[in-house]
UniProtKB/TrEMBL annotation:
CDD domains (UniProt xref): DOPA_deC_like (cd06450)
Keyword terms: Aminotransferase, Decarboxylase, Lyase, Pyridoxal phosphate, Transferase
Protein origin, superkingdom: Bacteria
The protein's name in its UniProt record: Aminotransferase class V-fold PLP-dependent enzyme
Species in which this protein is naturally found: Micromonospora chalcea
Reported cofactor(s): pyridoxal 5'-phosphate
GO molecular function: transaminase activity
Amino acid sequence: MSSIGSPTGAAPTDTGRAAATARDHLFNAGSLGRYRDVLARGVDRVARRVGEVDTPFTGVTPDQLAPLIGGIDLDRPLGDTDAALDELHDVWLRDAVWFHHPRYLAHLNCPVVIPALLGEAVLSAVNSSLDTWDQSTGATLMERRLIEWTAGRIGLGPTADGVFTSGGTQSNLQAMLLAREEAYRRAVGGAATRPDRPQVLSRLRVITSAAGHFSVQKAAKLLGLAADAVLTVPTDAARRMRADELARTIDNCHRDGQVVMAVVATAGTTDFGSIDPLPEIADICADAGVWMHVDAAYGCGLLVSPTRRHLLDGIERATSVTVDYHKSFFQPVSSSALLVRDGRALRHATWHADYLNPARAVEQGIPNQVDKSIQTTRRFDACKLWLTLRIMGPDAVGELFDQVVDLAAQAWQRLDADPRFEVAAPSQLSTVVFRYRPSGLAPDLADEANLHARDALAASGAALVAGTKVDGAHHLKLTLLNPETTVDDIAHVLDLIADHAAWYARTAAAELSCPVG
C-alpha cells in the first residue's frame, strides 16, 4: 500500500510499514503515491539544506570524507527512505559545494533556474532516451526545435543542424571529428591513388589560441592525430587570438605540406572571458578554405543578451559552434550542444545498426537523433531548456547573464584601484583574473602567498575562488555567474584573500630572517 504525505506537514516515514518488495520501488501507475511521497521528502531535504547554507562550502577534506563513504556497506540496504536521506546528508549534502551561494566565485558553474529544475524532475521520471524516435517521440522533435532556435540565434542559415551533448568537451570533440573527416575527404578527393589514412592523418593540424580550452588538445589525442597536431597562436594584450599570427601559422602549414583541418576560435576563454576576433578569423578561414569552429561554451549567453549580442559578431560565419547552456543559460548539468552550418557534416557520426536505426529508417523519414550523435542512450536534457524558454523566455535569461557581466566590470575596477592587488586584462564576460601583489612583495613570495590564500579561503569555507597561471605566475580568478552576488560580497572576499596572503607573506619573511641553528 502506498504512502501519502501527512496532512499536518510532518514527513511520513517507512517505519511500521511492511517491508517493500523489489517491485514496490518501480515507478508506474501503481506506485504514484510512493513516488509523490519519496520525491517530496527528497525535495524537502534539499530545500532545508539550502535554507541553512550560509557559506558555499564547509571546508571538508578528502581525508575526512573518505573513511565515512568507504565504510558504507552497499550490499546492506537501509530499507528506509528517511534513513537513506539522513545518510545522504552526511556523505554529500552537508558538505556539498553550493553554486547558488553568492560567494561561490570559482569555476564556470552557474546557479540554476527553477523551470530547469522542473524539467530535470520531469525528464528523469519519464526517462526518454534521445537516440531513436521509437524511444522518445515528441522529445526528438523538441530537441530538434531547440537546435533550430539556437542555430537561428547564431545565424548559421537554413541548412544548419546539430545535437545536444554532455558538455563543451564532447561538443568540441565531435566538431573536431567532423572537421577531421572533411579534411580527409578533401585530401584524398583528387588523389590518383588513395593515400594511406594514417599518413593523411599525420599531416592534419588544428590551430587554436594560447588561451583556448584544453579539450582541443584532448580531442586531437582521442582522434589519433599527431602529438604535435595542435598549434597554438599567441594572444594580444586582451588575451584574444592574434589574427595576423593565425594567418602566418596557416601559411607555414601549407608551406610544410601540412593540412589545416580546423581553426578553433574561442568566444569566452575559461580564464579571461576573452572573445577572439571572429570576423577577422572568419575571413582568414574563408580564404584558406579551412573549417572554422567557435568554442562558445561560455560566451553563448550573449546569444540572448539584450545589450551585448554584438560581441559575437562573426560567429554566424562559423562552420561549427559549441554552446553550453549549463554555463550561461543557468541550466543544470548537463545541457550543451554542437551546431553545424551544414547538417550533412553530421553524417560522419552516423552508424546504422539493424536493431536500432537501420538505413531504411532514413528512407522512411524517421527522425533518429542517434544518426547525429556520438552517444547512443542519451537523456532528454533539452527538456530543461525548453521549459526555461517557455516559462521565463530568452530575454529573462539574457538579462541574468548581462547582470553578471556588469558585475565583473565593477569587480575589475575595484581590483584595479586596490594597491593590494594586480589585475590582468579586463574580461569581455564575467571573469576577473588578479593576484595579491602589494608593492615590494617579491615574485616568488607573491606566488606562494596567492596559493596559500586560495587554499586557506577554501579551508575556511567562507568563499571559493579559482586559480590559474598567467605568464608563469600564479593568479587568482573570480568567475561570476550568480546574479545574486553583490559588489559587497566581492569586497568581503577580497579582504579575506588579502588577510590570508598577508599573513603568509609576513610569516615567510620572518622565517627567512631568523638565523639558522
